Amino acid sequence: MKRNKKFFQDVWFIAVCSIGGLILSLTGLSIGWMIGTLIMAVFLSFRRLSSLQLPHHQKGLPRYWLYAGQGILGIELGQKMNLSVISIFQENWASILIMLFLSVVFSLLSGFVLWKFSQTDMLTSFFGTAPGGLSAIPGIAEEVGANTAVVSIIQTMRVFLVVFTVPIIVSSLAVHTADPTITYNAPVSRGISNFEVNQLFWTIILVVAAWGGYYIGKHLKFPAPWLVGSMLSVSVIQALGSSYVGHNLIAWWPHTVIILSQVLIASSIGSRFRKNMFIGLKKTLLVALLSTLGLIIAMFVCAFFVSKITGITFITAALAFAPGGIAEMATTAVVLHADSTLVVVVQVLRVIMVCMILPPFFKLLNRRRLRKNMHSHASA
User: Fold this and answer.
1) Which one of 26, 218, 317, 351 is most buried, by most CB atoms within 10 A?
2) Is 42 helix (H, G, I), strand (E, B) or coil?
3) pTM (2 d.p.)
């Protein structure tokens, strides 16, 4: 009885937090549900309003809510590895690899600057600047011991700066270069939500694959196995299945499921926020702001050189390089008659690569640094 009461209190807390997501989603921002829910969860965690009869967990919501959100997000990202992505990668593999490599390198440099010139620890600095998506990175950061409050704030700052500056700058540059005769590719399909039996069958297969991917990821000690393991396994099944039948297999995956994922992740992370997490953040936020602006400028410079070397238009390269906002960058590419498919492919592959490769790399760096510090203290 007591367990059921606690469960319904958690559901009530998540429902109240989702009101903030609903309000911010009305602005049209694709991550509005995530940011709005996170803000509301943080507010409720700080205020502890007894009139709402919210749960007073010392360590936030139980972790299974976060794991559920990560599992849904893993399936969503894994589904994007379809024949369109594979085809575009085969045609432009050199350009895409260059973009991915430079994006990761400059994000690492941005994290290094944040670490060296602020009071933030190394793990928090690198996770805060990793271009892996606001929905994915904070959850992974929490599991490896980083300060999720700082990571969430820096990730939110990065996404807002990218979403509100890159499309405006690129659009202004395109005014003088637009050519109405240029054709463009449609963005990669996100799937359809109309119910069909065969789509439901494929959904069940992907869910089972995600479940199996979690156990594989847990066995291999992946960070956030519910996200990384499920994403990797669903990617493999989606790519192999689509290749076998010769067309993209589409699961019944309505957009409300993705909203649910954002709400669960944001509520879980926000419920763990405490006021002491924000102590001494003034310098950190200033350095994070400057390093993010530097990252955006570096991406524009890289986009210019990549466009000259590969022949890809500057607009397409700039939108593909932009470290955040897949939906916004794809929409801007369509409006400006850029290659929106290439933009989406680069953005999606970067998120998948960052979630799979960078967290273990960050943990290894941090472990080596701690071991080095222990040796230096022992020899002193």
Assistant:
1) 317
2) helix
3) 0.72
